[in-house]
Structure formats: structure tokens, C-alpha cells
Amino acid sequence: MSLAEVLRLPVALRRATLTKAFIPQPILASRAYTPTFQHLQRRHGTTDAAPHTTSSSVNHTEVSHFNALASSWWDPQGSSRLLHLMNPLRHRFIRRCLAYDDRDEAQKLRYLDIGCGGGIFAESAARLSTTRSVTAIDPTPEVIAVAKRHQRTDPSLLEAGRLTYLNTAIEDLPNHDDGRYDIITLFEVIEHIQRPSPFLQSCISHLKPGGWLIGSTIARTPVSWFTTKLVAEDLLRIVPRGTHNWNQYIQPQEMRDWARMQPELSTSDGIDWQVMGVVYVPGVGWRQVKGSEAWGNYFFGVRKRWDAE
Amino acid sequence: MALTRSVAFRKLLALPPDVRRRLWSSAVSVTPGKPDIYDVVCIGGGPAGLSFASALKAHSATRALKVALIDAQDITTSRTGNDGDAYSNRCSSLTPASSRFLRKIGAWDHINTGRVQPYHAMDVWDGVSGSKIHFDPRRYEAGSDYGVVATMCENGNLTAALLQRLQALTTGDAGAGSVCDILDKTKVESIELGPQPETEETVDLSQWPIVMTSQGQLAARLLVGADGANSPVRQFVDIPSHGWDYGQHGVVATLELEQTFAADEVRTAFQRFLPTGPIALLPLPGNKASLVWSTSPQHAAKLKQLPPNDFVAMVSAAFRLMPVDVNFMLSPDMAVTPSEELRWREPATSPSSTGLPSTFPWITGVQEGSIASFPLRMRHADTYTGHRVALIGDAAHTIHPLAGQGLNLGLADAEALANQITYGMEHGMDIGSSWCLDGYNSERWAANNAMLGVVDKLQKLYSASAGPVVWSRSLGLEAVERMSWVKGALMGVAAGAK
């Protein structure tokens, strides 16, 4: 949404949009002269008010928020409906990333799903014929319990090693070479992390060389504040209140700039770095909209170098 | 085919998939109370159920699904006869869209094409006013299906072809790793939800439908009801089905014509709207034709009692005489036989007053034992899907036969549901969940509702004999007759073009 479009809104809405959207964002204001990845770096260096262990990315306010929502993960009309509807796009995006690999088709993939919640993506990845195994982790104990309970309703997911849920933070996940993953997914996770930079670094240490780090999040713009906070949470209430913290949203450019700083990652356009903007159209569903990554929900994929450790 | 039962279900699950699959299909042991787990259980081995199962087995994304198809009848041995002189009275008019689907899943190659008859033109006329509409062949080319309005095919020919296709897809080298257990002569005793899990760690089938049959129990990730108008599956999920009875019966028969047609000749379907209901003559190969006559239950009962020559005379009368004469000939106090009546009334009735097409053939006989009747209804289920359940074909909807759409809608359901399951498999969905099935319901319910509505309104419109209704519908028909582009569009719709 451009400034002109914001100005066309009714006065009350506009005032709300402008105050909320423009005041608490030192990052946007300073973007002109600071490298954009500073957003990620700075939060890394800031001491958060919420208590957390020194090694963990886990935000305890978030954990209790998702504990309270646990029961509705698998309700078709429940608060996770938008995530369920988005799930096919996640697979489409992963396929798009893998399309650039000259991978052996018979080589089945090992997934690590971080912040798996009730298991919407983890279950679906475990069902694919191209999957060898899925390990899914979440720091919230109650959602892991929900995920495990739901896993038992599908005998195909109980096959040994097919789908394993662990109640852990990524920093506490054992890391050894033969247990590394082809694909690590972070769907709707980074916006819930207070210090994304060390978090993302712990993620890539679990990737095989040539493996993909794939995620989705929301760009920090007035439009995304308007759609995800005001409309989705406050007006339509299709997303539970307090789910998102707009200040933690990340721009695709910030993601990419951060990735460029990481020696293990390869970010050449189209081959090792992929981005796809998506928009939820009520009554239609999620649709890919070219360019919308700049102002709304988007997917990103970045590959670990083949010669990385 | 014997049902397989796993002894140690959990141990089996721990094995690699290919080993497990082999064990699963070879282990025959008796452990009462343990259901066999299937991805898809389809109840009903009619055209909808068989084409759905074939579509799953024909697609690479869904061929590995473990499928069971249950039917109470003996569907594996009953085949249509190859007697060129006898045709079943249960025929359907396959639209080009249906033929396309059957070709796509490879079933068309198994059809006995010597027993099917495409037709290329239609004559439809109003029995009260005589106003008519003629649909010409559109760019007909002999030997191609271009310009084909629809293809008459015996239901037995179609189901036999689908069954052969299904067996070809699941046996031999081509069928390796693809399971479709056909449990025919198998009665469904009940459908229940699965038991509560034994412990907090074991598999939980408490939301899975379990089909109890005379041959064992089948747990279904997705239970498909292709089980006809009184669908037990629909009753299990408690989906209401609304509609009404038309107070009409459909009388069907296989007729013989005076003229014998060559295989590549342009053929015409005839339909006349009488106030008691439409009567249609649909071409079959050679000198055969299929009759569908919707009429009052009294007339239907009387027709079934007539000797063959009088039945033939009555059918001819229904096409050739004024409606008042047809009613009179079927009235209980009729003292003279229909044959005698027709002999003097027919020459006295001018074709211009009835709208009789000049090409309408003379009917010379009726195949012995081919006259049957059934009540006509309109029913539509409120929804086609529930948790781990989907309805297709007559289980979802029953339609008046006047447009010959019933079986075609069932095939379209089968195709749409199979497509939706393909989409679900490609995106890791649980194919029994609403996330996967919602798309099927939204695609087919509205389309079927529109077709049911149009056919129902046509039926009501042509049941009227009151002056103003007849004038206006005749004006409408005449207007359409003069506007070639509207006719073209109508033909397209009738042919199932998308």
C-alpha cells in the first residue's frame, strides 16, 4: 500500500494505521543509511525484557500464547485455518527451490521443521513419497502434545522414523554430521523470534551442504500491519489476538542481506535464493502475487553452499 | 478375494514400506476385531465407483493408494452378452465430456465399440403445440467423435470395460505395488466409527469409518459412497438429501426399427414432450433403439402388461398421435387394442399438427423381456463430503432422465474427486480430511445443482398443458430454433462441453 492509498482510508482507520505503523519503527526510518540486516543484528544484541536462557531463541510470552491456542490447531474452522490453507503453497515453494537441484530423484529427503506447532506442515511433509523422514520441533509443550495426539490418527505417520516430534528449541537439538537435514523449514516462525540472527545461525548448522533453509514470514510494512494486525487480529478476528508482534516482522531484503553475510550460505539470484510473495484473498484462498513479498506475506529459500562445513 | 488381516499391526508399521506392503497383501490370518486399513474404501461397483477407482489407479500420484471396492452384486463375472441381436434396456447416453474422461483413464479401449452408437443430431418437439427444434450435426466427420452429441452405451458394457481396466492397472507388471481389492458378492453389514485407542501411544482410529462386511472389517481413511440413491454411506454420515418424487415412472425397453443403419451413418435422437412426460427414442447399432418413456404410474403399469405388438403400437402412437389420443388409448375403458387404434388414427393424423419429424423411423418390434419401469425422483444431498467421507453419483444426486445426464454427472463426480485426491497426495494432505475434500464439494455441488435445477424446470414446464404455458414455451422453442448460436450453445451444454 502506498502513502496515497493510506490517505484514502477513513480518518479513524488512517490515524490508527499511521500511529501504529510509523511510530514504533526505528528500523524503517534509519534504513536510508544503515545496512538493512542491522535489524537482525541489533535485536541480537539487545537484552529482551522477557526472560530467556542465554542460548535459546525461545520467547516465553510466545510459548504461553501458543499453549493457549493448542486445542484449535486441527479444527477445520478454527484459528489455524489460514495456516492450513497456506500449506499447499509451502510445498509448491519447496518444489520450486528443489527444481534447481540436480538431485537424484530416488534420494529421499530428510526434513527438519522448526516451530512445527500442531504439525500442519510436518504431517504433510511426512506423507510425501519423496520424504525419508521428518523431525519436527517446537518449544511449546502443549502444541507438541497436540501434534503427537493428531499423529496417532493416521497410521501411515506412525511408521518408525517417518515423523518424530521433539519438544525442544533448535539450540538444544543434538547436531551431528550424519543426522543433518536436506531441508529445514521455518514457516511463520521468524516473526515470533526476538533475536533472529543467532537463531538462524543455529538452524543452518543442521543443514547438509547443498541443503535448503526455507521459510515464510511477513514483511514489516504499513500494509502488513494493516492486514495482519488490524484486519486479521482486531477486525475480522480470523487470527487470534496477540499472535503477531509487528515489530518483529522482517523484510525480504533484510533476510537476503543477512544471508549474504553468512559464509556458509549461497545467495545467487534464482538458483540459491528464492522468494515468493503470497496474498490471502478472502473466499478464494492464498494466491501467489508477484512483488507482494515487498509488503506482505512471503516465502524465502536460501541454499547452504555445497562446499560448506 | 480374501481380506487380509495383520497380526501385529504395530510391528508391521515399523517395517520398511515395500516389505510391509508385501506382507500386508499376503498375510491371511484371523484376528477378529482388527480392521484392515485402507486408504480408500469405495462402496458401490457401478459406473461411478468403478471409474473413480480406475482414475485413482491410472494416475501416478494416486496409484499406490490401497483401495478396496465393495459391491453386494457379482460384478466380476456378470458381463454383457456379445449377442449382437440383444441389447440391455439399461443404456446411458455418454456425453463427450464423459467419453473424454473414460479415454483419459484408459477405460475406453476396453469398451466393446461394436455395441455403442454415437448420435449426431437431435429432434425435440412439443407434443401439445407441435413446435419443434432440430439440432443438426455440427461439422460431423465420419469415423471421428467430432460433432457427436453423445454416445449410447449399455451400462453393462461400460462397467465391464471399467472392471477390465481396473484389473489391468492392478495386476501383472503394470500393477506392481498398486492394490485394489475388489470385494464383490460382499454385503456391507454396518458402518461404524473405529474403537477408542487401547493406550495413549497406539493408533487412534476412533474417527475412522470402519466398514463391517461379511468378509471382514475395513478401516477407511476415505470412505466413498457410490452406493446409489439409498446410500448407506450417506446415512452413516447423516447427510440429509432433499427433493421430490415426480409421480412418474420411467418405462425402458429395447426396440427394433424397420430400417437398419450402417455403423458410420449420421444418427438422430428423438424426444417428444407429452403432458404425461417426455418420451425418447435413442439410437443403438443396426436396427436397434433404446426407449425411455416417462409417464404416469398407471400408464406405466398398463404398458408393461401389453403384448409385444400392442406395446410397439403404443410407443409409435406416443410419438405420432395427438396427446389426447395417446391418453385415450391407455385409458382403462379402452375396448380396442392399441394396434387396431393406431392403424386408423395414424393416417388420419397430419405430421404438421403433431410436429413429427419426417425422418422419424417406424418401430417394428420390442426385444423380449426388455420392458421395465422405475419411479422417477429428484434428490440432492445437502453436501457431498464429511470427515473421511465423500459421496459420488446417485448417492449424491438423483435426476430426471429427460436430459440423459444421470450417469454423466456421476462420472464427472468420480473425475473431480479423483483429481482432488491427486492434488491432496501431491501436497501431503490426509485425503480423508476436509482440507482435501472441500474442493471436491465446492466444484461438483454447484455444477450438479444447476443441472438438477434446469432439468427439473424443463420437466415441470413440459408437464403443463394449460394454454398460456404451452404458447410461451412454444414461442421460446421456436425462437431458439431460429437462433443458430443459441442452439449451438445448448448443444454444447448438452454435450458436456466445458
Automatic annotation (TrEMBL), chain A:
Functional pathway: Cofactor biosynthesis; ubiquinone biosynthesis
Positions that bind Mg(2+): E188, E191, H192
Enzyme Commission number(s): 2.1.1.64, 2.1.1.-, 2.1.1.114
UniProt-recorded Gene Ontology molecular function terms: 3-demethylubiquinol 3-O-methyltransferase activity; 3-demethylubiquinone 3-O-methyltransferase activity; metal ion binding; polyprenyldihydroxybenzoate methyltransferase activity
Membrane topology (UniProt): Peripheral membrane protein
GO biological processes: methylation
Positions with a binding annotation for S-adenosyl-L-methionine: R90, G115, D138, F187
UniProt cofactor(s): Mg(2+)
Keyword S-adenosyl-L-methionine listed: yes
Localization per Swiss-Prot or TrEMBL: Mitochondrion inner membrane
GO cellular component: extrinsic component of mitochondrial inner membrane
Stored InterPro entries: SAM-dependent_MTases_sf, UbiG_MeTrfase
Keyword vocabulary terms for this entry: Magnesium, Membrane, Metal-binding, Methyltransferase, Mitochondrion, Mitochondrion inner membrane, S-adenosyl-L-methionine, Transferase, Ubiquinone biosynthesis
Catalytic activity reported: a 3,4-dihydroxy-5-(all-trans-polyprenyl)benzoate + S-adenosyl-L-methionine = a 4-hydroxy-3-methoxy-5-(all-trans-polyprenyl)benzoate + S-adenosyl-L-homocysteine + H(+); a 3-demethylubiquinone + S-adenosyl-L-methionine = a ubiquinone + S-adenosyl-L-homocysteine; a 3-demethylubiquinol + S-adenosyl-L-methionine = a ubiquinol + S-adenosyl-L-homocysteine + H(+)
Oligomer status and interactors: Component of a multi-subunit COQ enzyme complex, composed of at least COQ3, COQ4, COQ5, COQ6, COQ7 and COQ9.
Protein task: O-methyltransferase required for two non-consecutive steps during ubiquinone biosynthesis. Catalyzes the 2 O-methylation of 3,4-dihydroxy-5-(all-trans-polyprenyl)benzoic acid into 4-hydroxy-3-methoxy-5-(all-trans-polyprenyl)benzoic acid. Also catalyzes the last step of ubiquinone biosynthesis by mediating methylation of 3-demethylubiquinone into ubiquinone. Also able to mediate the methylation of 3-demethylubiquinol into ubiquinol.
Family the UniProt entry places it in: Belongs to the class I-like SAM-binding methyltransferase superfamily. UbiG/COQ3 family.
Protein name (record): Ubiquinone biosynthesis O-methyltransferase, mitochondrial
Organism: Baudoinia panamericana (strain UAMH 10762) (Angels' share fungus)
Automatic annotation (TrEMBL), chain B:
Co-factor(s): FAD
Coiled-coil regions listed in the entry: none
Subcellular location: Mitochondrion inner membrane
Catalytic activity: a 4-hydroxy-3-(all-trans-polyprenyl)benzoate + 2 reduced [2Fe-2S]-[ferredoxin] + O2 + 2 H(+) = a 3,4-dihydroxy-5-(all-trans-polyprenyl)benzoate + 2 oxidized [2Fe-2S]-[ferredoxin] + H2O; a 2-methoxy-6-(all-trans-polyprenyl)phenol + 2 reduced [2Fe-2S]-[ferredoxin] + O2 + 2 H(+) = a 2-methoxy-6-(all-trans-polyprenyl)benzene-1,4-diol + 2 oxidized [2Fe-2S]-[ferredoxin] + H2O
EC number from the UniProt entry: 1.14.15.45, 1.14.15.46
Gene3D superfamilies reported in the protein's UniProt record: FAD/NAD(P)-binding domain (3.50.50.60)
Transmembrane portions of the chain: none
Any single Gene Ontology cellular-component annotation: extrinsic component of mitochondrial inner membrane
Protein's UniProt keywords contain Oxidoreductase: yes
Domain FAD-binding positions: 38-320, 370-451
Entry membrane topology: Peripheral membrane protein
HAMAP family: COQ6_monooxygenase (MF_03193)
Described function: FAD-dependent monooxygenase required for two non-consecutive steps during ubiquinone biosynthesis. Required for the C5-ring hydroxylation during ubiquinone biosynthesis by catalyzing the hydroxylation of 4-hydroxy-3-(all-trans-polyprenyl)benzoic acid to 3,4-dihydroxy-5-(all-trans-polyprenyl)benzoic acid. Also acts downstream of coq4, for the C1-hydroxylation during ubiquinone biosynthesis by catalyzing the hydroxylation of 2-methoxy-6-(all-trans-polyprenyl)phenol to 2-methoxy-6-(all-trans-polyprenyl)benzene-1,4-diol.
Annotated PANTHER family: UBIQUINONE BIOSYNTHESIS MONOOXYGENASE COQ6, MITOCHONDRIAL (PTHR43876:SF7)
Entry's family note: Belongs to the UbiH/COQ6 family.
This protein's name: Ubiquinone biosynthesis monooxygenase COQ6, mitochondrial
Gene name of the encoded protein: COQ6
